[in-house]
Design a protein that fits this description.
One of its GO terms (molecular function) is ATP binding. This is Pyruvate, phosphate dikinase. Belongs to the PEP-utilizing enzyme family. The chain has about 900 residues and is an alpha/beta fold. It folds into four domains: about 240 residues, 2-Layer Sandwich (Dna Ligase, domain 1), CATH 3.30.1490; about 90 residues, ATP-grasp fold, B domain (D-amino Acid Aminotransferase, Chain A, domain 1, 2-Layer Sandwich), CATH 3.30.470.20; about 130 residues, Glucose Oxidase, domain 1, CATH 3.50.30; about 300 residues, TIM Barrel, CATH 3.20.20.60. Helix content is about 50%, strand content about 15%. An eight-stranded mixed sheet has the order 14-24-23-16-17-18-19-15. Strands 26-27-28-29-30-31-32-33 form an eight-stranded parallel barrel, surrounded by six helices. The radius of gyration is 33 Å and the shape is elongated. It binds phosphoenolpyruvate and magnesium ion (MG). The site of phosphoenolpyruvate (PEP) has 10 residues, from α32.
């Protein structure tokens, strides 16, 4: 097998790493006996070495020479032959498609002599000179780096001189003169002549393609698409065929199925008498493939045959580029075609029904990201819209409502039956009521793991965050974006999938897939607007059912209300992996918690705890009832302390004002002293989680008792509650032991009081590096671990999860330090390594240790693969991501 250079006949479709997508496709088509012009591929390895050494590998020149000789033999023409020249195209082709990002040079081999040979061979002198001037132009721009306007200006001058407005009206002499003018430009701009040696042209074109891997736009594209920078591109050198040799020639693109609907058939565009670039650039309007059928039924039939062959061979939708040269079909490219999310599901199931692929393969052909696109209502793409600004897409969906600027107004207006979008600079836990009342949430600050984003995702509420352009004037009840103003009550629309914010209403289309997940296949089918929608719903059902059958990972939900729990269950959750109890202590109950925390004597504290017990018990009864028979992990309280206490500044001002009036409330003074005492510079690293539970007597005991009593009550009712008690932010086994001992005591007490057997599992979250690194010790006290990867990411990287995304991630993203936020997709090298250590060392001590993850990563497709691979038992995510997690857990297993 060759080294840096592979003949098209030597590779195959599986060699994409070395040959790039295009090279592998050309090789595969060659192997299949399809009509591919002869050629060869220079491997990505050559490009990588070029990038490392700044020069092409020495052997490459020799290998290119030999490959060109083979090409000449195959074509019976010679490179540089003045009478009958071989011309080649030089195209980039990376492993992952990067459309339009890198360079191509066509007609390499033309010079002052061979242009006459081309004219003789084609019998078309104008064509030959036009090809030559295109070469000088393309070569000048991409290889020699001359600004494109130089050539464009010269072309304009030529047209003006002739008094015509389009290129095609220029005659042979004009084009010959233009070649002269272009060559002058090359000389002026580079200080040297346009290279007449075909081999020099070829070598320079090859290095130009290598260089184009690292242009600004190519790097930017890779960052966006998460393509690694070190792959390099292959270079395809291929004998030229011409689609612009008159009416019996042409060029086109084709799909073996409709990429929008998945329907089988022939889809594509054809342009007679044109080169590929004309189709791609959209210079001329194309006609459907029926045009080719009409013009040249034979070539059309050849194309259909090739398409059928490719689809049965690749067993997938393929897209194809082809050229017809004087009635002869040439295949120039093929690859598995991109498609919309609905088409991906339909095509996968169609291929199963056509016995081309298995259900396992069908599962692998769709992604969680595609499924989530299908779950949310979307704005009607064809509708008119008035873009106001853009933010970060934090929670998908399409929301239209009146802008309101505080949570209270949101609740009031919603109670009057109005649809509102809550707009805040940023949100805090006090905004929760408003977020629930609103159809969407929009913030000017904060990133994808800010409070607003996490809470909104949890609720499935459409949310856009970090729209920095919004200048919110709360007292004025309005916001400004540059010269534009939106007043409270004005209608706005936010798109949680794209991050766009519109002024005015935009029509919304409901999601049939979401209907199916909520109400079942029959309801969704009965309501399906058309056959395609019905087909889509059935396809999703079949693939998800298969995912459930093959997956090893369990899927639970993060839910903390009975409604969310019920919804999660409908969506297929097999339990609750995280029931956060913080919100149960907000609103009216906050005063009670304040009293517990600030109590100066035991009686006062006990009174507040006693008042909290029945309400907390009812919270758990509701959730455990909704999750009857399924495991429900209840996490003990974990807020930073300051969330429960009055704001220090506000309280200080209030006391100072009261003092100046001589009417200070002694309670306020007491409160101020306590708040001062407990004030923390860094609450996220302060008195929270298990620390709060150990420092404030009775707090965790109250919660544990409430869980036990709720379970006992439901057992008495004949239900099967399965609560698990989870201790947050543990860093030391001593912390866990103290809480666990107390839990066991309370379990025994409640068991005795109620006569119900209670043996609730007790476990802890792994949210601190120290917890992961001492997992063997923790496992002696924990029956389960749940990885809190939000905090684990925060504490491993030392990034504040609330501030970091707006603050410097964009910069980190731009300079390539972070391709993706580690709060979105788990950082497998660092955070993942800690997870791995905890899994291995925890299980070594306790082989039946049950392991899950409940950070936001539990719903992220890429992270789910990792959690499958390290052997977790389940992932837990917001209810709305449950179907996506089911699908991805299935995909991880096939
Ligand atoms: C976590 O830290 O990953 C977690 C699930 O807890 P929270 O997001 O509530 O801090
Ligand atoms: Mg946490």
């Amino acid at each position: 097998m060759a080294g840096y250079v592979w003949d098209f006949s030597e590779g195959d479709k599986d060699a994409r790493d070395l040959l790039g997508g295009k090279g592998a496709g050309l090789a595969e088509m060659t192997r299949l006996g399809l009509p591919v012009p002869p050629g060869f591929t220079i491997t990505t390895q050559a490009c990588r070495e070029y990038m490392a050494d700044g020069d092409v590998p020495a052997e490459l020149r020799v290998e290119v020479t030999m490959a060109m000789r083979r090409l000449e033999d195959a074509m019976q023409r010679h490179f540089g032959d003045p009478a009958d020249p071989l011309l080649v195209s030089v195209r980039s082709g990376a492993k992952f498609s990067m459309p339009g990002m890198m360079e191509t040079v066509l007609d390499v081999g033309l010079n002052d002599l061979t242009v006459h040979g081309l004219a003789a061979f084609t019998g078309d002198e104008r064509f030959a000179w036009d090809s030559y001037r295109r070469l000088v132009q393309m070569f000048g721009r991409t290889v020699l780096g001359i600004p494109g306007e130089e050539f464009a200006d010269a072309l304009d001058k030529a047209k003006a001189a002739r008094g015509v407005s389009s290129d095609v009206e220029l005659g042979t002499d004009d084009l010959r003169d233009l070649v002269g003018a272009y060559k002058d430009i090359v000389r002026e701009q580079t200080g040297r002549e346009f290279p007449q040696s075909p081999r020099e042209q070829l070598d320079l074109a090859i290095t130009a393609v290598f260089n184009s891997w690292n242009t600004e736009r190519a790097r930017l594209y890779r960052r966006k698409e998460r393509i690694p920078d070190d792959l390099g591109t292959a270079v395809n050198v291929c004998a030229m065929v011409f689609g612009n040799l008159g009416p019996t020639s042409g060029t086109g693109v084709a799909f073996t199925r409709d990429p929008a609907t998945g329907r089988s058939g022939v889809y594509g565009d054809y342009l007679a008498n044109a080169q590929g670039e004309d189709v791609v650039a959209g210079i001329r309007n194309t006609s459907g493939l029926t045009e080719l059928e009409r013009l040249d039924p034979e070539a059309y039939e050849d194309l259909r045959r090739a398409m059928r062959r490719l689809e049965t061979h690749y067993r997938d939708l393929c897209d194809i580029e082809f050229t017809v040269e004087r009635g002869k079909l040439w295949m120039l490219q093929t690859r598995v075609g991109k498609r919309t999310a609905p088409a991906a599901f339909r095509v996968a199931v169609q291929l199963v029904d056509e016995n081309l692929i298995t259900m396992d393969e069908a599962l692998d052909r769709v992604t969680g990201a595609q499924l989530s696109q299908l779950l949310f209502p979307q704005f009607d793409a064809g509708a008119e819209r008035d873009l106001l600004a853009r933010g970060m897409a934090a929670s998908p969906g399409a929301a239209v409502g009146m802008a309101v600027f505080d949570a209270e107004t949101a609740q009031e207006w919603a109670a009057e039956g109005k649809e509102v979008v809550l707009v805040r600079r940023e949100t805090n836990p006090d905004d929760l009521g408003g977020m629930i009342a609103a159809v969407g949430v929009l913030t000017a600050r904060g990133g994808k793991t800010s409070h607003a984003a996490v809470v909104a995702r949890g609720m499935g509420r459409t949310c856009v965050v970090g729209a920095e352009a919004l200048d919110i004037d709360l007292p004025g009840r309005r916001l400004h974006v540059g010269p534009r103003t939106v007043h409270e009550g004005d209608v706005i629309a936010i798109d949680g999938t794209t991050g766009e914010i519109f002024v005015g209403s935009v029509p919304v289309r409901p999601s049939p897939v979401s209907r199916y997940l909520d109400d079942g296949l029959d309801v969704a089918l009965a309501e399906a607007a058309d056959e395609e929608t019905a087909e889509l719903v059935v396809a999703v059902d079949r693939i998800l059912t298969h995912a459930d059958a093959v997956r090893r990972l369990g899927v639970r939900a993060n839910a903390d209300t009975p409604e969310d729990a019920a919804r999660a269950r409908r969506l297929g959750a097999q339990g609750i992996g995280l029931c956060r109890t913080e919100h149960m202590f907000l609103g009216d109950r906050r005063v009670l918690v304040e009293r517990v925390v600030l109590a100066t004597d035991d009686d006062e504290r006990q009174a507040a705890l006693d008042a909290l017990l029945p309400v907390q018990r009812e919270d758990f009864v509701g959730i455990l009832r909704a999750m009857d028979g399924l495991p429900t992990t209840i996490r003990l309280l974990d807020p930073p302390l300051h969330e429960f206490l009055p704001d220090l500044t506000e309280l200080s001002v209030r006391v100072a004002l009261a003092e100046s009036r001589g009417e200070v409330d002694p309670h306020d003074l007491h409160l101020l002293a306590a708040v001062r005492r407990m004030h923390e510079a860094n609450p996220m690293l302060g008195l929270r989680g298990v620390r709060l539970g150990l420092v404030v007597p009775g707090l965790f005991a109250l919660q544990i008792r409430a869980v036990c009593e709720a379970a006992a009550q439901l057992l008495t009712d004949g239900l099967a509650p399965r609560p698990e008690i989870m201790v947050p932010l543990v860093g030391s086994v001593q912390e866990l032991r103290l809480v666990r001992d107390e839990a066991l005591r309370i379990m025994a007490d409640v068991s005795q009081e109620t006569g119900q057997p209670l043996d609730l599992p007790v476990g802890c979250m792994i949210e601190l590096p120290r917890a992961a690194l001492t997992a063997d010790r923790l496992a002696t006290q924990a029956q389960f671990f749940s990885f809190g990867t939000n905090d684990l990411t925060q504490t491993t990287w030392g990034f504040s999860r609330d501030d970091v995304e707006g603050a410097f991630f964009p910069q980190y993203n731009a300079n390539g330090v972070l391709a993706v936020s580690p709060f979105e997709t788990v950082d497998t090298r660092g955070v993942g390594r800690l997870v791995q250590i905890a899994v291995e060392e925890g299980r070594a001590v306790r082989p039946d240790l049950h392991l899950g993850v409940c950070g936001e990563h539990g719903g992220d497709p890429e992270s789910i693969r990792f959690f499958h691979a390290v052997g977790l038992d389940y992932v837990s995510c917001s209810p709305f991501r449950v179907p996506v997690a089911r699908l991805e857990a299935g995909r991880s297993a096939v």
